[in-house]
Amino acid sequence: MLALFIWGFALYGIFMVLWKAVRFFVHKHRRGVPVTAILVVAEGASYIEGILRTLTTAEPFCGRELAVVVLDCDSRDETARIVESIAKKRGTVSLVRVVEGDLTKAMAPLFGTDGRSVHCVFDLRGKVSPLEVVPTLAAFWSDGTV
After folding, report:
1. Does the N terminus or the C terminus of the chain have fewer Cβ atoms within 10 A?
2. In DSSP terms, which residues pair with 97 in a beta bridge?
3. Where in the sequence is the domain holding 66, given as residue range(s)?
């Protein structure tokens, strides 16, 4: 019984070493311009977690780096808490709270940070479907663009 337990830990260790090596080489061989996705959200607790988890799960396997910035426009639901919990686990996600609807002031520093990055702004407050965010960003990730 003890031998099976030791073999289980050994196999787990070997798997983790291989996983880390693959992620290291994928990250090392990235090419292309980084993409920054700016999501403008108000009352988005019903869909923001799905979008962020999809984007952060797919990001290590794409050819480009992806940073996600969520601009929360005075949401009264759990949007900010959801984004903060994902941002703690993933360094590529960040939250900016927009107070009193001053969106242009909140977005100005984002565009001045990195002159090499492509910025995609998605206003998810209105009639835009959150289901359009991931396929649109997937087009930017492909090697043929930018």
Report:
1. N
2. 72
3. 31-141
